[in-house]
Amino acid sequence: MWSLSEQPTRGKVITPNRGRDVPLPLACTLTLADRQYSAVYEGHGQSKVAFRLDGAGGKYDGKMLKVICPAKPDPECETMKHLAALDCDVCVSIFMEGELKYRNQVLPAWICDYAEPLDKYLQRPEADHNRCMTSKLMCILRAAESQCVVSDVGDYNFGVVSDESKVVILDMGSRGLQEERPTKGKLTTQFWSNFLKYAMASVKNEEDNTQLVTLANVYRDAWSIRDALLKLELSWMTRPCCHNREERDRADYSESSSSGGEEEPTQASKLHTPPTRAMAWDCEFYEEDEFISWYDSNEEFNESHEFTMILMSHLSTLVDARCQKPKSYG
Ligand SMILES: Nc1ncnc2c1ncn2[C@@H]1O[C@H](COP(=O)(O)OP(=O)(O)O)[C@@H](O)[C@H]1O
Ligand SMILES: [Mg+2]
Question: Which H, E and C letters describe 12-76, residue by residue?
Fold first, then answer.
């Protein structure tokens, strides 16, 4: 059994986020079978407390200890493991589960990956609101297609992975594994108004707002969760990351290189098109709908390449693989 004991904070000020009182010390020592880690409070909610681990060279350095406190049955870990086994790529990885002794309590706990909570990440100047919201929505939809509905879609229950390549779910909540996949209509009543509420609260400018409207329209117009996912995957693949750092770098590059001389023949200036646009075979950039209809309507192209079919079948396979197929049948 693992154990947790209080550690002096050594003058470091740790400020808990709001909500209920933190039921565990903010700085602790975690003792596993073979090593001790310092465990420093990172966040807490209604049922769990999350600590960041540091074992000076231990294999869980930088990972998170999550503790359900007070102890109670919680489907969270099972749900996360179900989603991880399906390889649908929507949650933080869980490395190890255990029971944790703290004073006279025995608490369910696990060690999982760290992902910067989305509410914090969105405060960074380089955070790309549209990319973050698209990735967050894809997580919710992929999880639903895998029979799991996120209970609370607040940004604090999602995180951005360390290479900033996607958003993942940190807290699935209490709903557990559903008997069947929800329909889009049912899912919409369960999460959509809160999703929009949080998304609107974090828009920073008019462009974020416009892109949020586009995202909402994509979801609204889809006739099923799967259909929404197909469209979102397509838009996501045009730029699969949560920040707009490259866009800024490109803008700097363009400013310094445009000060004299002719335009480069690389079409680099077209890379400044908004991230909702993607380049089709004719090297022009299109909005998502135009992009799809370009391939639908270009007969000459379709006859010779059957590209639409290939593209759509790739996307279907991708969505299928992430939503349905177990990683192994062993
Ligand atoms: N894997 C993680 N990486 C980084 N921060 C986390 C992680 N898991 C949880 N947190 C932080 O701890 C808070 C509480 O954890 P959470 O699982 O949401 O508990 P609860 O079920 O009580 O809401 C989260 O809102 C988030 O800020
Ligand atoms: Mg939570």
Answer: CCCCCCCCCCCCCCCEEEEECCCCEEEEEEEEECCCEEEEEEECCCCCCCCCEEEEECCCCCCCH
Segment 183-209, tens digit of pLDDT:
999 999 999 999 999 999 999 999 999
Whose C-alpha lies nearest to ligand 1, atom 11?
43
Q: Is the pTM of this model over 0.70?
A: yes
- The residue contributing the CA closest to ligand 1 atom 12 is 43
Q: Which residues surround ligand 2, an ion (CB under 5 A)?
A: 45, 157, 171
Alpha helices in the chain (DSSP H): 76-85, 118-121, 129-145, 184-201, 206-221, 225-237, 245-257, 288-297, 299-305, 307-323
Nearest ligand 1 atom to the CA of 113 is 1
User: Does the beta carbon of 47 sit less than 6 angstroms from any atom of ligand 1?
Assistant: yes
